[in-house]
Amino acid sequence: MEHWRADLTITPEFISQNPTFLAELNGQIIGFHALIEKDESWSLEHLWILPDQMGHGFGRRLFAHAAAYAAERGALSLTIEADPNAEPFYRRMGAIRDGTRESQIDGQVRLLPLLRFVLI
Length: 120
What we know:
The protein is α+β, with helices and mostly antiparallel strands and about 120 residues long. The protein has four helices and six strands, in the order H-H-E-E-E-H-E-H-E-E. The model has no long low-confidence stretch (mean pLDDT about 90).
């Protein structure tokens, strides 16, 4: 399996070990987010919305829930390794770019934005 596929695969073990929440609409799962606790700076490891549900505020609500959940448990910030196409969303939420990380998909080099969202 290619490295990026493994990074995007959500296993039952991952869910049991990390706070993971879903968004439903009319009984259908339309998105979710997952966090990894890392001392005072938690990682927003996943935030996904079905493409046909984008632009309806579900991503904003999931992000707000992730931020509130982490802050209530003592986190001072969220770190986000984002898909380049998702960076504008996170910037609109108030995250700032903290750097980049080189990645590869199908042999093509990509720079992934590293973002930080301050919770305090």
